Protein 1
Amino acid sequence: QSALTQPASVSGSPGQSITMSCTGTSSDVGSNNLVSWYQQDPGKAPKLLIFEVNRRPSGVSNRFSGSKSGNTASLTISGLQAEDEADYYCCSYGATSLWVFGGGTKVTVL
Amino acid sequence: QMQLQESGPGLVKPSETLSLTCTVSGDSISSTSYYWVWVRQPPGKRPEWIGSIYYTGGSYYNPSLKSRVTISVDRTRNQFSLNLNSVTAADTAVYFCANTYYSNYFDSWGQGVLVSVSS
């Protein structure tokens, strides 16, 4: 069960858009639409941002959006705000890999 | 709104068994929509799924931990529990209980409990 690959860090200025990737394999990310994204503040539990590749739970800002192409999923944050500084994790469910998380991306607002 | 709360010792000796309980409030653990899950996160590292259980008791585990893990459910107490045996320092982590909506996503999380393995 290998971790999904995410960039270690991404940064941007307030108001900009940033995108982070999540690369897996045909056994996980590429096998279905069960990709989700989580935001985690230090010392807190992860919080669901995106599920089923591009769906947002109620209460999550529409500045967060998700997409997928082949074995790579992406999370975009539009109109970057200081409060968006956090760690972001992708997650995939696959029939063989079961639940697997990415290594995490630290977002810094410059 | 569903809430989950972990409980258990914060310090376990090497080779012993780590035992944690998650108490669910605001919803029934017998809900047919959810699996009940344990996830751990070593300091500074990614979350790692440990295993999942359905209210009927059916369970499945991370293959890398399967030989040491047991997850059980107590419907009368609206709780589910984790046992991880033969622990080593590598098992030191924040342990979260959570639920997943079928196999789609992690929905609600407990606040997490730091468990250290040390003599």
Protein 2
Amino acid sequence: DAGVTQSPTHLIKTRGQQVTLRCSPISGHKSVSWYQQVLGQGPQFIFQYYEKEERGRGNFPDRFSARQFPNYSSELNVNALLLGDSALYLCASSPIVRQPGTEAFFGQGTRLTVV
Amino acid sequence: RKEVEQDPGPFNVPEGATVAFNCTYSNSASQSFFWYRQDCRKEPKLLMSVYSSGNEDGRFTAQLNRASQYISLLIRDSKLSDSATYLCVVNDDYKLSFGAGTTVTVRA
């Protein structure tokens, strides 16, 4: 069975550019969450989507946006890139909206470098 | 104050040793707790859930103290393959809150 897939795996962008990252959840999973992991830190929550609706948002600026499609795949968009946006972006899927004890399965991540 | 704080390590231990480390969390209403393992430049993977009564999974033992808002992980009989970063994770409603990770290196 395919796990969570993310694309692209690596990306280099210039400051001020825009980027779109993609995630396909595990088949049957309806919830997708996005996390940003800066080197040396733990992942930080950005968004959660369930059934195409935003269910939660972390402490990130409005330059970050996301959406979920009818097939439950998701895109994360970041506008006006800053050097500080360089990070590993992780997508996690789970079968339902987050509930206590529900395991989240992570994709391999997209490593974004802003130069 | 950070939502989840961990012993940063690094812990450098010989094969066969026991290593233990902790984390604390700030939200007393947090509902569930996990340890995830992350290998270098890879995605986090669930190691084990943590229950109030404490739980074991092979060589790994996790403890939760809700009164002190404290979680621990103990690894017995360390293997080379246990070398990784261990992330303490707290589930708050719709999101996971991660600690910065504890790095463990097991040497031959």
